[in-house]
């Protein structure tokens, strides 16, 4: 929660996503002790600056100044379509819907009232069900997904993980929603 508080203080519109969320939940569900973070993926969406790293660098500098103990990694999702060879993304949920796997396509941020807001274009079932499933765009790149899972050692780290390589998920209309306090204990 400390990382969420720091991020909220620096940019209340930004989200923490990907491995930070997925690894924390899968480790807790698997009874694995907390491990050091490789990075904390922070998502912003600045459609007015799709070519420069300036928005990312500015927020990353503020985050590092506020909490140098965290490995911050800020990415402007308004320009990530270029790297991913996709059409331009409309917003953060649309960008996340193009990620390779469902359980990584989840972001969280703290609201001004201290509750959590979740953005999950494919829902939370795969995250909490220990399921590694391609998104619909990820299914087209399923060999890339398999290579990614192997390189990161996910099936070794979480032996109960089910890899549903040939069963892609379709995004649902829900997108982002507030998370009740009763359900925040897993995070």
3D structure, described in words:
By secondary structure, this protein is of the alpha/beta class. Helices cover 36% and strands 16% of the residues. It has one domain (2-186). It is built from nine helices and eight strands. The strands form two sheets. Strands 3-2-1-4-5-8 form a six-stranded mixed β-sheet. The chain has a two-stranded parallel sheet with strand order 6-7. It has helices spanning 2-10, 19-29, 54-66, 80-84, 92-96, 125-128, 136-140, 142-152, 154-157; strands spanning 15-17, 40-44, 72-76, 107-110, 116-119, 131-132, 162-163, 176-179. Residues 180-184 have low confidence and may be disordered. InterPro entries: NTP_transf_6 (IPR009267). This is Nucleotidyltransferase-like protein.
Low-pLDDT sequence parts: 180-184
In total, the number of strands is: 8
N-to-C order of helices and strands: HEHEHEHHEEHEHHHEE
Inertia-based shape? globular
User: Percent range for helical residues?
Assistant: 25-40%
Our count of domains comes out at 1
Give the radius of gyration: 16 Å
CA distance, first residue to last residue:
8 Å
Integer average pLDDT: 86
Tell me about the biggest sheet? 6 strands, mixed
Strand ordering within the main sheet:
3-2-1-4-5-8
- The proportion of residues in beta strands is 15-25%
Protein name: Nucleotidyltransferase-like protein
